Amino acid sequence: MENIFSKRQNLILDMLEGQEGLPVTEISTRLALSVVTIRTELRFLETKGLIYRSNGKVYNNLNVPMQFRFKKKLKEKNAIAKKAATLIDDNDSIMICQGSTAALVPTFLTNKIGIKIVTNSFQTLEVCKNTSNFEINFIGGKYYPLLDANVGANAIEQVNNYFVDVLFIGADGVSSDFGVSTAMEENSQLLRKMSQNASKTILLVDSTKIGIKALFKILSLTELSTIVSDSNCPKSFINEANKQGVEVIIAEI
């Protein structure tokens, strides 16, 4: 794939590789560039879903373990997952991809009966394992520690063995023109296959992901049936999604 990033942006990504976050000032010093210049480059990389900033540090998004992502914006994620669970009926079959918000959905399905869950996510498996009223089917494949999930060709092949009523997916970004996107190519391939094998695809994203275009496209907006987000979701995005035939449901926080 053609490298679309500048030399400066690649140097920043290389510097963050394997690190548990670096201060902006350290990146500035090591590259002998001003903090203002570094922040400009970081904003671009952030729009691609490749980095994020928190408490004065910069993190490579591809190096952030799922266990850490699970703790970010937990209030919003719980609200979104709870609202998403209201879209499920007794005896529904659902597929849940890797993702910190999607993994929370089964927490709010314990009052349902006959729920069948298909997932590649160990986080989802952890949430489900102590609940006896779920039938769980686990997708194997190549284990990817940062996602805490199985991906790759074998996982994609196994998805072909299932067809479900509802797929819940997450993403690094979603925009009205580019659609749903992720920073990880293997993730995009698997999620596309999952969506093909579901009657409905429901995107679960907090409002910070709205307007972001990550590196790899997963789906067009029109391939979604519903988006569930939090109350900070921009009205302009809601209106544009509605124009494209996609329902947007807001979880109050």
What is the fold's blueprint, element by element?
Elements: H1 7-16, E1 22-23, H2 24-31, H3 35-47, E2 51-54, E3 57-60, H4 66-69, H5 74-85, E4 93-96, E5 115-119, H6 122-128, E6 134-138, E7 142-144, E8 149-151, H7 153-159, E9 164-169, E10 173-175, E11 179-182, H8 185-196, E12 198-204, E13 216-219, E14 226-230, H9 235-243, E15 247-251
Parallel strand pairs: 4-5, 4-9, 5-6, 9-12, 12-14, 14-15
Antiparallel strand pairs: 1-3, 2-3, 7-8, 10-11, 11-13
Helix pairs in contact: 2-3, 7-8
Keywords:
alpha/beta; Arc Repressor Mutant, subunit A; 9 helices; 2 domains; 253 residues; Rossmann fold
CATH class designation of the largest domain: Alpha Beta
How confident is the prediction overall: mean pLDDT?
89
What share of residues are in beta strands? 25-35%
**Counted beta strands:** 15
Whole-number tally of structural domains: 2
Helix proportion of residues, in percent? Answer: 25-40%
Largest sheet: 7 strands, parallel
- Would you identify the CATH architecture of the largest domain? 3-Layer(aba) Sandwich
Would you list the SSEs in sequence order as H and E?
HEHHEEHHEEHEEEHEEEHEEEHE
Strand order of the largest sheet: 6-5-4-9-12-14-15
Would you give the CATH topology of the largest domain? Answer: Rossmann fold
Low-confidence stretches: none
Shape: globular
Which radius of gyration do the C-alpha atoms yield? 18 Å
CA-CA gap between termini: 40 Å
Annotation field: number of helices = 9
Query: What structural class is derived from the secondary structure elements?
Result: alpha/beta
